[in-house]
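[Meeting: bench + compute handoff]

Bench side (C.D.) handed over the final construct sequence. Compute side (W.E.) agreed to return the predicted structure before the next meeting so the bench team could plan truncations. Sequence as handed over:
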Amino acid sequence: MKILFAFENPLPSAEADAEVFVTTARYLAPLTTGAWLHIPLADNADRDTIERLAGMPIVRAHAPLRPAALRHFLCGLTLVFRREFRQADLVYTRNLWVAWLAILFGQRVAFDHYRPWPDQIPPLQLWLYRLICHPRFLIHICHSDYTRQKYLDLGIPAEKLQCIHNGFEPQRLHAPVPIELAKAHIGVAADRKTVVYTGRVNHKKGLHLVIEAAKRLPDLQFILVGSYGEGPIEAMARGVPNVRVVPFQPAEALAQYVFAADVLLIPPSWQPLAEFGSTVLPLKLFFYLASGRPILAGQTPDVQEVLEHGRNAFLCPPDRVEALVDGLRELTGSSTLGARLVAAAAADSRGFTWEARAHKIAAVLAQRLAAAPVRHGAWGPGQFRAWREKSRRWLVHLLRTRSWVLPPASVLPEPLLPEPVLPADHTASAE
């Protein structure tokens, strides 16, 4: 099996999409008989560094780094003329444009992505249905069953969809630091209880809920790691003495903050999943599982695929500050509860390494390459009516809010806390 991996953004990168795609490719490449990574490069001087990072030869995309839209367009358009495109058994991509062009030019495709596009941008539904049901579209690897279900609801055959969760690299946790030493390293007293969040610090992560909880829990030290500058969350935190906002940290430094946590926090909010759609089953969750620290998160359908309340994590109802406050009090007040959750989480984490993910994907690809093409029927009148109605709702939502993501009304409750006020020109990027 020979795979041409196609990634449309420059490397190295600290973005979550790059970590997921490149790490998966690096662990998957040794399981193939040939692998290449097609990416845009500023110049050939970076080629050796990126080849070591990716663990395979680089095929330089004929595309400028800026603007991003032109880069994505040309990464797909020029890919199909490369020799490696013809040599590969399939193209592995996270980009729908690349997938469509590869199929158009006779290649097979594996698509690996986390977003439930049929729900978020309904006008795409008919095109997505036809693309994924094409005989040369081998598999859509979904990062969550939540996303997989959205494609099943579209009528796409189950054989075309596979949920394979993300993972973590055990090497990042090979030398765990005692919590007292980790706290000292980041300047926190050993007897001070800490609640640590890692990831992007922005208005899309439900962090306004965390700051409200911090105001009611002055004895706890809240540490939000991952700031990229001044934004609404940084402004909200400025007047709260027990909230510390820390700039983005590289992996080796980030581990110090994780080890300094009495509780690792995934903000219990619908916002990332339902309102902004930028986070589905957050990547940090898998690293948290293996960290040896108890996790608090929300009872959202994506998170509950991996975390179970009272067994490997503490889960509370989303967007309810009192529930978050009560949960943090319970977790920081009971070492027995924390130890029990940590033990179960550590056992579960063994199945969520990047290496394990790569082996699962390799098995799926081998099976799909050997299988007969999956046929499909045409949409019926009911499906067309549903598509038109949901597309109408999406257009109304876009005109009213200027947001491209249509929230799933069935799960998004009325907000129970005031939203942070955003500057008119504020544009925060997704995790």
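W.E. noted at the follow-up: Residues 381-401 form the longest helix (21 residues). C.D. will use this when planning the next construct.
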